[in-house]
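Our platform keeps sequence and structure together, in a single record for each protein. Because each token names a local backbone shape, the row as a whole describes the fold. One such record is reproduced below, unchanged from the form in which we store it:
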Amino acid sequence: MQIREIWPFLLPGVLLQVLMQILYIVESVREDNRKPLHRTLYILSIAVFGLAAIAFHLLRAEKTPPKDTTTAEVERANHLTNNGIFFLLLISFQVMGLHMLAENAGTAAYMPLLWLLTISLLIMLLYNLLPEKKRLITEPLLPMLQLILCIPIQYLDVSGDNLFLSIIAGFSAINRAPLPRAKVYGIGALGVYLLGSTIRTIFLSQSTEMNDLVRYFFVNTIVVLLALLAFYTLKKQMITSIRLESALRTVNEQSEKLKGLAVIEERNRIAAEMHDTVGHTLTAAVLALEAAEGLVSEPQAAQKLHQGKEQVRRGLSELRASVKVVRAGNETDFAAALSQLLQEIRSDTGLDIHIVMESEITLPPLQAGILLSVVKECATNAIKHGHATEADILIGQHNGQLRFAFTDNGVGTDTIKSGSGLSIMRERVQSVGGTLEIESAPGEGFTISLIIPAAQRKEDAE
């Protein structure tokens, strides 16, 4: 048997191999996600081993199911695996076909077998290589036509290789088809083999012992049945695995969304309770203290009432700021909130505040609320106790630590007494793992420095 005698069967496979080698090498050259050494090895393997190397790389490639995968998309999500299996089946079909032609060389069945195998190969290529969107309307009939061609091939072949050729044709039909149609192709492949094998058995019954024929018939049928069943089961398991992976990813995404919604709902509930209960209580307390202040004639008592009223007002202001921070959650824009607060302080008190922020500061809600309350307390103390007219704020972030300094031009003192405001400030800073220091001297104003973690601790978040 010479090359010129089998060129119709060889030519399609050779042309396809050269074309695939060129396409995959060009695609590899264009890719940027491979290391130079890996890319070189990949190109060399394809250039030397052809379809076998392409199939190997396709089978070991990472497969990710599409997002929001539908049933039809799931069955095509393993297209890389399908293509890898197809290239292996194509190699097997050509090898078995060449062996069959070699075994039948010199017989009257040689030329019919050559053209039957060639047509079968062309149908296999047409069915597997047509793009999804450009397939023919009669595309589902192509695998059945290839399977039907196995009947005359079985009848004409004298080598016995038709068993493997029928299995390869059945694998090719099942591999590319959606799962419901793949079952039909598997049953069709078994039925076609039984029909062709029966015809072959009847033809050989005159020259071969019946016991040998029956043994040959049943053994081969069982082999074909088990092979087709195993391949169909493998395909079904692959699709099921992709479906489960896609469903699991969807469940995880929905779980994260529900968790986020639950956090927002709980945060809003807490903010509403703070506003409706504590806020209203403090407002009522302010009104009661104002009324009592007008009824008291003793200067000392009036002073105490006024002091209590101011403390309640400050608590109410801090509560409102906290409600805003809680409602904002992780989306708090600290820089914008600080700018708004400083603008309100300048407008309400006349204190001229200069701020230097070394970098863009991003803080969790808890730390942002504490820092804003510290700014308000510092400004209040600077005006009330230090009679300051100007203040400087320095904020910087380094190695996960936020550093804050507030310096005013007040009268200063050599004896620092921690009132309720400073004590509360220190406790809140220490509650998030920070430190607070106060420095002052007569005529040099006050400097309040603190360091807090820029990230929120797990227990604080909870």
In short: The longest strand covers residues 390-398. The radius of gyration is 41 Å. The first helix runs from residue 3 to 30.
